Amino acid sequence: MVDDALISGVDISYTYPDGTRGFDRLTVHVGRGEKVALIGPNGCGKSTLMMVLAGLLRPDTGKVLIDGRDVYQNAEEMRKRIGFVFQDPDIFLFNASVEDELRYSLNQLDMNAEKMDDLVTHFSEIFELKSILDKPPFRLSGGEKKRVEIASVLIYDPDILFLDEPTANVDGKTRRKILEILDSYRGTLVLSTHEIDIAEKVSDRVVIMNQEKRIIYSGDKEIIREKSFLEEIGVI
Question: What is the pTM of this model?
Fold first, then answer.
C-alpha cells in the first residue's frame, strides 16, 4: 500500500507555538481512493496530524508528499486538490451569506458564471440550503453551518477530503445527511472521529492514536469492535 500511497507523511513531527509537542516522528500513508478513519482519545493529536497532512501546518521534521510531490513546495496546486472541513464551522465560514460561501472557492478558480450558477443550484439542493441562501452564516444553527461548510468544500470537487469530527454537535437529520454524502464521495477521504459507528460506516481502514500521541495501530477496521481495547486506550 505504501508504493501506491497518494498521501505520505514520513517521519513527521509538530510543535505548537507555545512549545507543546503535538506529535513526534509519525509515519502515515493513505492509498488513492481510500477512506481512512483516524481514531484516538481527546488530545492525542488527531486534528493536528490531519492539518499537517493537508498542508495547513508545516511539520518540524519529515515531509508530506501527495502523489510523490512535497505538499508545501506545491501549495497552489495542492489547494485545488485538497478540501478540509474543520470541527468548528465558525473557523471556516466568513462570507456575508450562504450563497457567497458556496461561490467563494469557485470564484478563486475563475469559474465561468454559468457553470458556477449550476453548481450552486445543485449543491444547495443536495445539502438542503435553498431556503437559507440569503442568510448570513452566523445566524444559522449548528447543523446548518456544518452543511454549509461541507457543501462549500465539496462544491469545487477536491479529490482529497479531510474532515475533523464531521458529525460532532449536529442533529440527527444533519448527521444522516453527512453520512449519505460521505458514502457517495469517490475521492480519497481522511476523517477524525470519536464516534466508533461513524468510523465503521465510513472507513475502509482505521489509524489509531493513543494518549502518548503515537500511532499504535493501522489496519483493518474490525479492531474497533473490540470494546476492551478501545476502553484501554481511552477512546470509549
Answer: 0.93
Give the HSE-up count for residue 222: Cα atoms under 13 Å, Cβ half-sphere.
1
User: Hunting for cell 507543546 — which residue is that?
Assistant: 20
Rounded Cα–Cα distance for residues 73 and 78 (Å): 9
Instruction: Let me know: does 30 contact 5? Beta carbons within 8 Å.
Output: yes
Residue 71's identity, in one-letter code, is V
Could you tell me which residues are beta bridge partners of residue 156?
none
CA neighbor of 199 nearest in space, from 236, 145, 171: 236
Q: Extract the C-alpha cell encoding 109.
A: 478558480
Q: Over the stretch 101-144, which tens digit does the pLDDT of each residue have? A: 999 999 998 899 999 999 999 999 999 999 999 999 999 999 99
Helix/strand/coil for 86: coil
The grid cell for 134 is 440569503
Which helix (H) or strand (E) element contains residue 217?
A: strand 215-220
Tell me: the pLDDT tens digits for 76-100? 899 899 999 999 999 999 999 999 9
d(CA 164, CA 207): 14
Phi, psi angles (nearest 5°) of residue 193: -160, 150
- DSSP for residue 9: E
Q: Which of 36, 31, 34 is nearest to 200 (CA)?
A: 36
pLDDT in tens, 190-218: 999 988 999 999 999 999 999 999 999 99
Question: How many of the other CB atoms lie within 10 Å of CB of 76?
Answer: 6
Do residues 97 and 134 touch, judged by C-beta distance below 8 A? Answer: yes
